[in-house]
Amino acid sequence: MKILRMLFSGAGVLLVLGLVNFYIGLHLWVLLENWLPGISAGAYWTVFMVIAFAYMIGMVPWPKAVKPAARFFKVIGSYYLACMEFAVIVLPLTDLLYWVLGLMGVNRSAFTYEAGATLVLLLAIFLIWGSRNAWSTIVRTHPIKIDKSIGTSAPLTVAVASDLHLGNIVGNRHLRKMVTEINNMKPDVILLAGDVLDDSIEPFIRNGMSEQLKLLKARYGVYAVLGNHEYYGGSIKEYTELMDSIGIKVLQDEVVETAGVYIVGRKDKTAEAMEAGGRLSVSSLLEGLDLSRPVIMMDHQPTGFDLAAKAGVDILLSGHTHRGQIAPNHWITKRLFELDWGYLLKEKMHVIVSSGYGTWGPPIRLASRSELIKLEVLLEGSKQYSEEPLSSQTVLI
């Protein structure tokens, strides 16, 4: 029965994608016919549909000999996903304008050429600006006060990165930049808040990305949690063992004590559907801890703030949303989550949701930025704690 539901669901998705892409393809065909009279309809629709479904083609587990071509299809398909979203927004508006001009009696003979040229120019601007937002990273610094002490006067510096999505698109070049910037923070602790992988572990291993992550340096250690994409990839055991071999502990409903604070790592919410035992509650994870000490928790998806605050968490770190990645998706994530990006004080608990460092699908961001988080945790006994903390800072790198 479950398999049948999955088949119907998959067929429904394919049908919707097919209709959406036919709508987009039809408009592009009209434009190309106007620009290139005599173009072959058969050749056009074949090429268009291959590009439209290239991402799905690249996701198929092809034989090893075909994998390089499949990776190429996935890259092409990822950019098409951004173009598809752009088209879904602007084409209905263009059709509406065409219809209104007709009602007004305006001559529309040149409309296709002029509208097509305008949309192509807007698409180019969208892709260039979106690419800049995806690859040009911002470091956001948050000074946070916690009325607890670890017996030292210095603030605790915590570097946070989420949603790296390392794979065929986000690769070693972007990863090296992240490692350099985080190490420049001279952090006491480094936290990776889920979705380090972009589904498959194969490009992560093939491109030796663990060797780059191995270069992360923190006084009291580097810790990570699982995100939904690690679950989708299905290689959690292999991934956690590989991370452990380079000195990065992946916390799965586990707590470690370091630098006088507790680092709590929850399994991702996906575990509730994909693992028989699900995941532990926050109160279960914190049971028996000395809550006079600071508690920093990573939970990839930003949910359950009330329960975490009541359980005694001081800082909750999440990612997952990418802040929608491409506008106007951020309007949707803002409605889905209590906090889809930024900072929130929930009772006494500080919540920070990152828009993430990498990207899923197209390496394009609009109304969202690639970011790293630097926390300056001010504790009782530190000089800065008795002073008014600095406001959050943003630095472009």
From TrEMBL:
<feature type="transmembrane region" description="Helical">
    <location>
        <begin position="111"/>
        <end position="130"/>
    </location>
</feature>
<dbReference type="InterPro" id="IPR029052">
    <property type="entry name" value="Metallo-depent_PP-like"/>
</dbReference>
<keyword id="KW-0812">Transmembrane</keyword>
<feature type="transmembrane region" description="Helical">
    <location>
        <begin position="7"/>
        <end position="30"/>
    </location>
</feature>
<feature type="transmembrane region" description="Helical">
    <location>
        <begin position="42"/>
        <end position="60"/>
    </location>
</feature>
<dbReference type="Pfam" id="PF00149">
    <property type="entry name" value="Metallophos"/>
</dbReference>
<keyword id="KW-1133">Transmembrane helix</keyword>
<keyword id="KW-0472">Membrane</keyword>
<dbReference type="InterPro" id="IPR051158">
    <property type="entry name" value="Metallophosphoesterase_sf"/>
</dbReference>
<dbReference type="InterPro" id="IPR004843">
    <property type="entry name" value="Calcineurin-like_PHP"/>
</dbReference>
<feature type="domain" description="Calcineurin-like phosphoesterase">
    <location>
        <begin position="157"/>
        <end position="323"/>
    </location>
</feature>
<feature type="transmembrane region" description="Helical">
    <location>
        <begin position="72"/>
        <end position="91"/>
    </location>
</feature>
<protein>
    <submittedName>
        <fullName>Phosphoesterase</fullName>
    </submittedName>
</protein>
